[in-house]
């Protein structure tokens, strides 16, 4: 698997609280240049970003991020607003407390409502695996599958840890055939990226891989 193939499935990401438009613009330029799957950026910049790239790149943004405990109505509103502003992909965070309380129907209904608000756009459901037990990881795979989302995503990158090989392997075994997997958080080498893909990930959330390629090009 060559680097270009890997970059093609990367959501090139900048979600720092301090991100400025100039930094976002560079992310967009790099994402277009290296043909990444999307650029994942804060919702506040989606409209400006969509106008800037003029359809050359899918714009992804995050909903209920990073803690997931805003209400379902708020997440639905955020989603509709982001899509109206030009987002093509939505990465939402579940209410982790509800999952731990076994309020499974509420978790599923929230995902279903956000998915409906996506109006045909891609929904990736962030479950923050580092905070879950094995039982909870298996259950959320079932819930995401039943709710009809396109992807399950390991992590926000803002919690205690990011994606692990074990979690991606477990997800691959537990989600339905209609659900893809996004590994995110802490992916810092092409070797790790390839390993995640071989274990069953379909998309990678990272900022580091494009930076690595640029550094290598500058060294030539």
Task: Describe what this molecule looks like in 3D.
The structure is a single chain. The chain is of the alpha/beta class and 220 residues long. It is 47% helix and 16% strand. The chain is built from ten helices and eight strands. The chain starts with a helix and ends with a helix. The radius of gyration is 16 Å and the shape is globular.
Number of helices: 10
Q: What letter string, H or E per element, gives the SSE order?
A: HEHEHEHEHHEHEHEHEH
Largest sheet: 8 strands, parallel, barrel
Q: Cα distance, first to last residue?
A: 22 Å
| Percent strand | 15-25%
Catalogue the unreliable spans.
Answer: none
* Rg, alpha carbons: 16 Å
Structural class call reads alpha/beta
Strand order of the largest sheet: 1-2-3-4-5-6-7-8
DSSP strand count = 8
Kindly report the average pLDDT value: 97
- Please state the overall shape, judged from the principal axes of the Cα atoms: globular
Q: Helical percent range?
A: 40-55%
């Amino acid at each position: 698997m060559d680097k270009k193939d890997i970059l093609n499935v990367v959501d090139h990401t900048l979600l720092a609280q301090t991100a400025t438009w100039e930094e976002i613009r560079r992310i967009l330029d790099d994402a277009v240049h290296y043909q990444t799957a999307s650029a994942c950026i804060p919702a506040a910049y989606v409209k400006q970003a969509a106008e800037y790239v003029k359809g050359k790149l899918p714009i992804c943004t995050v909903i209920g991020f990073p803690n997931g405990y805003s209400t379902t109505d708020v997440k639905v509103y955020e989603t509709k607003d982001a899509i109206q502003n030009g987002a093509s992909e939505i990465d939402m965070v579940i209410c982790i407390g509800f999952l731990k309380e076994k309020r499974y129907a509420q978790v599923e209904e929230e995902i279903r409502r956000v998915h409906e608000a996506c109006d045909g756009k891609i929904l990736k459901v962030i479950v923050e695996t580092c905070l879950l037990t094995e039982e909870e990881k298996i259950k959320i795979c079932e819930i995401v599958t039943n709710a009809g989302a396109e992807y399950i995503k390991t992590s926000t990158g803002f919690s205690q840890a990011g994606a692990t090989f074990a979690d991606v392997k477990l997800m691959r075994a537990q989600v339905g055939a209609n659900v893809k997997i996004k590994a995110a958080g802490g992916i810092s080498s092409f070797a790790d990226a390839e390993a995640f893909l071989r274990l069953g990930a379909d998309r990678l959330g990272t900022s580091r891989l494009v930076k690595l390629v640029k550094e290598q090009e500058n060294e030539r």
